[in-house]
Records
---
Amino acid sequence: MPYTAEISRANPSCFLFLIDQSGSMADPFGVGESGRRKADGVADAINRLLQNLVIKCAKEEGIRDYYHVGVIGYGAQVGPAFNQPLAGRELVPISEVGSMPARIEERTKKVDDGAGGLMEQRIRFPIWFDPVAEDGTPMCQALSSAKRIVEGWLDQHPTCFPPIVINITDGEATDGDPSGPAEDIRKLSSSDGEVLLFNLHLSSHRGTPIEFPDSEAGLPDRFAQLLFRMSSPLPAYMRNIALQEGYKVSEGSKGFAFNADMVVVIRFLDIGTRPSDLR
Amino acid sequence: MRVFAKPFWAQRHGNEDSEYEDAFWPREPIDGLSMTSFRCAVADGATETSYSRIWAALLVRYWCRSACPATTFDGADLPKWQQSWSRIVRRRPLPWYGEEKVRQGAFAAILGLALDDVPNGSGGTWSAVAIGDSCLVQVRGDEVLARFPPLNSAAFSNRPHLLSSNPNYNSRVVNHAQKTQGTWQGDDAFYLMTDALACWFMREDEQRRTPWKVLRDLETCDEVKPFRELIEDLRKQGALRNDDVTLLRVEVS
């Protein structure tokens, strides 16, 4: 059965994020928050995804290397996007990612006070990426880079849980039709199944957020429809977890979200017993 | 009653001994000690939460030292147990991800068993409480008298309801506590197991094999194979999920 390989330090898997840093990301972000740009949405999304992935792999003794992680930026150039001290590296063990954010900010978070109310708590929030918006959107090149990196990983780890590639973009590629390069990624596989390509579409369109749709019929524009078609179907085990968590999914549901949050994908990852009440 | 109890454990394949996150009580074997009541427990810390080993160890210890009857367990003692956990894990400064893990809390399954003597009788009563998917079976001769909680092998998942060190997560979980009671006779055996072994046991039992004989004979003159060797064999056969494994074998007479 596919997507059942154990994810462990001896048999780690791989996460690759592609982040759109093109000039169009300076446009307003369409979820109604005044003054926010799509580039701010991208930075928030990638920082939250990395934060959640690190937390997932953290144990009392440190961060276990269940994953190796890469971030490819595309805009003025295409290439590894981590800042110093990880700059230039394509895949980094998750323990190093967690230990070396660009900086750590102090924020406040409303938490349950245990007596039916809310209280503010100071938390430390790691930042790896700041908003960037420059030049064109070479998405085809970014997908080709991703294919090369994932191929290299699969050569070294042929039995791993299939790598997951998450592309965060407004979908407006300027270097051609990304459908072909996307398909090339989805065709790659380990012995446990095909590589998963998910797309997170951040748009200026003020449409309602959409998560894991099973049809392009209700999507608000042609960019969303293209990214939907480029996305892998959710594997059955992910659909089961999504259902348990209250998402409306069906057999045709794809790893695509529109102006929404994809952090839930991190909860889909199985590295051992996870309490069903933990959100 | 005279109690014989022996714990067995093995960490997940690929992990160090120190990364074992189950817990059991009593910590040492008991060899025919005479007593009027006896409490024991196994717990299973969740892989995806931190400090769950400490939480599992606290749960079994507190359960076995408490006087709370299994059948009326309502979580009233939980705040005390949670405060102990919090004191232990906050002893030293934590990195940002450690702070977040502490905020989330640790989670564990627990199964507690209490055995009581009936004065001047040849047996007694037992009661048990379970939150999560650790299980016990009661065996008399060649018959399984009780399976608790009554799970079949298909019901084990990687997402059970567990008891948390974070009070905010427990309001519903305590409602998931299952309780049961029964009677025992001399020479009955109880096997307390964390989920991986319990799932193997139930599957074998469903296929009308006799898994209790394997557990009964373990490391006795009838079967000298060490527990860890049995576990490795079962894992290699694909019959046992790769997870921490704990068995507590309790026999009464």
---
Amino acid sequence: MFSFAGRNSLTKVASAVIFCAVVSVAAVDAEMEGMEVDQRDDGTFLVGSPTFYFDRALGSGGLHSESELWSPSKIRQRLLFSRLSVLPSWDVLPPSVWLKTGNELGDLIYQDFITTEDRPKNRTPILEGGFRSPSFKGFWVTARGFQDDHFSTRTFAYRKKLVDSEFALFGENYPMFSSVYAGAGYTGSKLNVSALAGEEYLWLFYESSRWIPVHYKPRVETRLDYGKLAATVVYEDAEYQNKKKKETGSRKEWNGSLRYGCGDACRKGFLHLSAGVAFRAVDDEGTVYSSLEDDRVLLPFMEMQFRVGNRFAARASFAVNDRDWLVQDSIEFSPVVPSKSGITLGVKNISGTRLNPMADTREFFDGDTISLTADGRMDLVQGYAAFTDTVGNLEMGGRGSFWAEYGAETFDVEKYVVDDIMVYRHGDIGRINDWIKGVTGELWMSIWYKEMFVFKALGGFERIDGEEKRFEVTPAEYFASFSADWLLRKSFRISHSLRYRSDAQWNLRSRDPMVIKGDWFWDATFEQQFPKQGLYLTGTLLHVIGDEVVETPNGAENHLRFVCTVKKTF
Amino acid sequence: MFVWTKAFALVLAFAGFALAQSLPDSSKVQSLADSSKVQDVAFSNLYVSIEGGEKYPFGDLVDAVDNAFYAGLGVRYTYWEDFDGIILFQYAYFEPHGKVSRINGVHEASGKLGLDYRWRLISPIAFGAGFLCNWTRADYEGDKEDFDYNHDPGATLTDNETEFGWFARLNLPVFTLDNYRAGLNVLWEQLWTQPERSNMLTIGFYVERRIW
């Protein structure tokens, strides 16, 4: 619930600020872990595939999307070319067994017999099954197979020509990803260790706007958490191919991270510290469509949080190596801290030579080398003020911000290449060496009744100004979001959200800008719960009233979909 | 039209017969919104059933497939005091109407999950609703490459096809004897197909046994 009683006010207001960013996620189930962006409209969220989307919350400032920005909190996320993604998630789930299936709605079935002209395109399913055993003296085993065939039909014919198999663990829909893993682990009071191995097919979206097939065979991931120490080591043996051009290549990659946070004594004090290092090392052979400078990257980082009472807090993270540096920091001050409301004034800054210093540095496209790095640096500064107030079962809040960014990363297009429905681009990553400024405003409210009902409403606007308009995406200017979560008789959940987003526009992926028209969307989840038995039967409708349009360049239509899940927890 | 009249009359007759059964104890029936006094009765009773009947295509679907017999299995379990959970598995074999396609027929396996509401005013009749998932595949022994997917009727069914939808139903118990019950299942289902939604009416008899 959203009662903040008992917390200190700064935390409360910080929660309110974060609330603005996450409220639209609500409780509607994502079709797959990591696809939560498809249920968000508190900003600009455009999905072209499970493996490629643009995700920018309206109040976040700057022109980049969240998945383009590296941060220490994402060291266990997947690197999909240059973006960080939860999907395909190899995070081990709690002990349970589950099965999920779904479909883009709109197959012909019996309509096939009476529809001979203008037949709709094939709709494709989603499949997932997995388990994690209960612990036996701390030891457990797990396995998971999952693939998302949604968003695959529009680019099916193009992608089919590039590979010599169905490029999936099962089926013939050429899904955008298909993954299976199995492994074992141990969970104790202080120690958590796991080792997983599996196989994975991925279609990655490159800066040239090409879909590149990557087959990991195998992929191995090990994790160790001991006290404040967290370590991850991944080995990937990736195969690349382009059957059309008779090209093959391979990349053997080691990547991972090590992180150490200060102990309990530090946590009780006013200063929190953690430090670590993220790394990648690759060995490419044959034709691989991108490269990493020196075949390796090592990125040491440090995080700090400094707090004085409940009025002042400062956070900062630094990452630096011989090629790049990236700093993200914020300072928040709360001048008013009454018991059930609060005001926060804050300043946020992001500066660095590259949004994602861990990503590859060059892409190769038809004899052209696309530089994925740009000279110089970017600086983003954002000032904001937020308030929250609570009256009985009603809570309301708002946030206003001003941001300015210099040196924003962009793409300097040299030419476009059209291949049927696909459009590619040549050029290099560049910078907008000019100030881009934005002003944002958000208001929200929440009403709840016991554990049975929560209603949330959120609205926001953003105005962006500047001489230069070479943005990858011109974000939506307005959004409104209404969501309600019901828990009837403590065992039947209905979660739904109704949302509107205004027009957004891709500027640099085709000769003419690609406008994604504003629209309303409705999603809903219905769930029978049997808490005593640990059984959950869930059905989710996604993208119900919105037009089924292509939301990203070279992407596929965002169709109406239904997904059902059966889960038994142990 | 005669089939529909007959089916409607049959349903009415059974509904009247069912209504003549004794009303259950309604003192335990709770308001849906009252979540504070809920007792966990989930799975306190569980029933399994066998079922058979006929499926009638509706609307434009009558030009696509003929009526078809179906058979199925069902599970009903206590969810709340006045709600039951229902799980149905049904199989049917449809023949194309008027030989519109080269394929002989279509195998359909249907899974349904939903809730029955035992409203005391019409007890023992219950009405329910839920989601369904139908898997289909053509009964065709030739090469599926013979079909033009863009034009030939039935072409997409030569591969596995799955579609979801929703259903609403009336559960009309007629005879109750100790642990056994027999009745009529009248079910309206809609598949979320394109270019039009596909509607069917299902009418079947079931025999149900209480397991615990």
